[in-house]
Amino acid sequence: MRRGGEAMQHKILLTTLAAVFIVYMGMGIIVPILPIYATELGATGFALGVIIAAFALSGGLLQPFVGHFSDRYGKKGFFVAGLFMFSLTGYAYTFAGSVSDLVLIRIFHGAGSAMVVPIAMAYIGELTGGKAGKHMGMLNIAIFAGIGGGPMLGGIFLDIWGQNAAFYAMAALSLLSTLPVIFLLPRQIAGAAKSKDTMAAVFRRMLRSRRVMGILLSRMATMIIMVPTFAYLPLLMTRNMTASGTEIGMVIAVRTIVNAIFQVPFGSLADRWNKNRLLFVGSTVVGCGMLAVPSAGSFPALLMLFAVIGLGEAVSWPALGALAAKEGATYGQGSMMGVFNMAINAGLFIGAMGVGVLVDWLGIAWAFYIVGIFLFASTALSAVLIRS
Hints:
The chain has 388 residues and is mainly alpha-helical. The chain has 18 helices and no strands.
């Protein structure tokens, strides 16, 4: 019986990871095409921001609701529905005739995302065996691999078959990812607790929990610091060291590569060691790295610095996911992962808006200084809250 249970958990893990990888590959494929497509439809710089924000806004608002109802009525139906919505979205992009159409499609796309990643994390969080850190690390690798490989394929599709080919590929991959979910995943993992409380009651208990608030604060802070890297690092490198596009790409990529390589080792360490300490150490390393970015005056220095930042994230992210999974055993994995992912969207949204204002007032360097200081402060406060 025990061996059969382990085999079932192994199947659930692999099925979930495969579905997440495929769907993120599909999302990554349209990354190089969407800004070009939007510009051809007349999008201004502000409109591009709205198009990007629409995805995060709808996904962030829906995730807590989807998470809670998945605890009450089963996760599989939401997972399949989200993947189907991704597939429909891929085809819908090809029919967009205006910027308004794209915004509506992105809202629908974000709603689909609310049913995919939190549910995948909830499935993994419900697996037993004391390997939450390792499993969350594996999930992060699936996301990184999909996001990293997708844009490359998208560029190839754009060059050979045109931009619609990338959207069709996203639709096909999303549809393909539903097959293992439909045939291999259970509606609910055996032994997983079903929520009988109302959503309001569950969220009230979460809001009263210092540990949950510490986890959400830390998750939001680690997302806010993503904004300077993707939005302002290329400008900083171009102005300060006349860096080439290849050098900028290498600096951004090394962070993700190092992060992905060390997810499983540090995830396994999080299962054996104090998760809160790992989160504190990793976030502190990242904060120091962000403060040092404006002072790095050469490409090799920045390359090394972002490798260290990626290492710090590899230390902290699996530990943070494992802490969330531990709280999920109390509040329901769907509910916990719903608000956990809402914190991700909130961090990206706040970072995009707040850092932009800082850059206009104080200059690009201060974008890195302020988010580094903010990460230090939130890390210290999160450690106290989680420890309590």
